[in-house]
Design goal:
Elements lengths: L10 H16 L2 E18 L6 E17 L15 E11 L2 E13 L1
Antiparallel strand pairs: 1-2, 2-3, 3-4
Length: about 110
Protein backbone atom coordinates (compact mmCIF):
# COMPACT_ATOMS: atom_id res chain seq x y z
CA UNK A 1 0.00 0.00 0.00
CA UNK A 2 1.21 3.50 -0.79
CA UNK A 3 1.10 6.21 1.92
CA UNK A 4 -1.39 8.06 -0.28
CA UNK A 5 -3.77 5.09 0.10
CA UNK A 6 -4.15 5.59 3.86
CA UNK A 7 -7.58 7.16 3.34
CA UNK A 8 -8.77 3.79 2.03
CA UNK A 9 -8.32 2.02 5.38
CA UNK A 10 -8.36 4.79 7.99
CA UNK A 11 -10.53 7.58 6.61
CA UNK A 12 -11.90 8.96 9.91
CA UNK A 13 -8.64 8.87 11.94
CA UNK A 14 -6.82 10.32 8.93
CA UNK A 15 -9.28 13.24 8.79
CA UNK A 16 -8.67 13.92 12.50
CA UNK A 17 -4.89 13.80 11.98
CA UNK A 18 -5.12 16.12 8.97
CA UNK A 19 -7.24 18.59 10.98
CA UNK A 20 -4.68 18.49 13.82
CA UNK A 21 -1.87 19.08 11.30
CA UNK A 22 -3.70 22.07 9.81
CA UNK A 23 -4.16 23.59 13.29
CA UNK A 24 -0.46 23.08 14.07
CA UNK A 25 0.54 24.58 10.71
CA UNK A 26 -1.66 27.62 11.37
CA UNK A 27 0.36 28.14 14.59
CA UNK A 28 3.68 27.69 12.69
CA UNK A 29 4.28 24.27 14.26
CA UNK A 30 5.33 20.94 12.78
CA UNK A 31 6.01 17.57 14.42
CA UNK A 32 9.26 15.69 14.02
CA UNK A 33 10.19 12.23 15.22
CA UNK A 34 8.16 9.05 15.35
CA UNK A 35 5.06 7.57 16.91
CA UNK A 36 5.07 3.92 17.92
CA UNK A 37 2.10 1.59 18.46
CA UNK A 38 2.72 -1.57 20.47
CA UNK A 39 1.09 -4.19 22.70
CA UNK A 40 -2.06 -4.40 20.58
CA UNK A 41 -4.66 -6.73 22.09
CA UNK A 42 -8.06 -7.70 20.72
CA UNK A 43 -10.68 -6.63 23.27
CA UNK A 44 -13.88 -7.45 21.36
CA UNK A 45 -14.89 -9.34 18.24
CA UNK A 46 -18.19 -8.76 16.46
CA UNK A 47 -17.89 -10.84 13.30
CA UNK A 48 -21.55 -11.87 13.38
CA UNK A 49 -22.82 -8.28 13.15
CA UNK A 50 -24.24 -6.57 10.03
CA UNK A 51 -20.93 -4.69 9.80
CA UNK A 52 -18.30 -7.01 11.30
CA UNK A 53 -15.95 -5.25 13.68
CA UNK A 54 -12.99 -5.78 15.95
CA UNK A 55 -11.85 -3.61 18.84
CA UNK A 56 -8.22 -3.31 19.90
CA UNK A 57 -6.41 -1.83 22.86
CA UNK A 58 -2.88 -0.61 22.10
CA UNK A 59 -0.11 1.47 23.62
CA UNK A 60 0.55 4.69 21.71
CA UNK A 61 4.03 6.09 22.37
CA UNK A 62 4.50 9.74 21.37
CA UNK A 63 7.60 10.28 23.53
CA UNK A 64 9.78 10.67 20.41
CA UNK A 65 7.33 12.96 18.61
CA UNK A 66 8.26 16.59 19.21
CA UNK A 67 6.41 19.74 18.12
CA UNK A 68 8.83 22.38 16.85
CA UNK A 69 8.56 25.89 15.40
CA UNK A 70 8.30 25.27 11.66
CA UNK A 71 10.85 27.78 10.40
CA UNK A 72 13.47 27.53 13.19
CA UNK A 73 12.99 23.91 14.36
CA UNK A 74 13.14 25.16 17.97
CA UNK A 75 11.31 22.76 20.31
CA UNK A 76 7.93 23.86 21.62
CA UNK A 77 7.48 23.67 25.40
CA UNK A 78 5.08 20.94 26.45
CA UNK A 79 3.26 20.39 29.76
CA UNK A 80 5.46 18.43 32.16
CA UNK A 81 2.73 16.04 33.27
CA UNK A 82 1.47 15.03 29.84
CA UNK A 83 1.12 11.36 28.97
CA UNK A 84 3.62 10.24 26.34
CA UNK A 85 2.66 6.54 26.43
CA UNK A 86 -1.05 5.94 26.73
CA UNK A 87 -3.75 3.42 25.92
CA UNK A 88 -5.74 3.90 22.76
CA UNK A 89 -8.91 2.01 21.79
CA UNK A 90 -9.26 1.31 18.08
CA UNK A 91 -12.34 0.08 16.24
CA UNK A 92 -11.98 -1.60 12.86
CA UNK A 93 -14.89 -2.52 10.59
CA UNK A 94 -14.99 -4.85 7.62
CA UNK A 95 -16.29 -2.95 4.61
CA UNK A 96 -16.68 -4.30 1.06
CA UNK A 97 -13.24 -2.83 0.24
CA UNK A 98 -11.63 -4.49 3.28
CA UNK A 99 -10.97 -3.68 6.94
CA UNK A 100 -11.00 0.01 7.91
CA UNK A 101 -10.03 1.87 11.05
CA UNK A 102 -13.14 3.87 11.94
CA UNK A 103 -12.25 5.11 15.42
CA UNK A 104 -9.18 5.75 17.55
CA UNK A 105 -9.93 6.91 21.08
CA UNK A 106 -7.22 7.87 23.58
CA UNK A 107 -8.11 6.40 26.98
CA UNK A 108 -6.24 8.89 29.19
CA UNK A 109 -4.39 6.06 30.94
CA UNK A 110 -0.70 5.19 31.01
CA UNK A 111 0.59 2.02 29.38
Amino acid sequence: MKPTDLHKIADTPLAVAENDAQRAHARNRVYIGAVNVSASTVTAIGLDRQVPNVKLSSCLDVSHWQPVVADTREPVDLPTGRLTKYLIATTLEEWPEGWRVVRDEPQGKKC
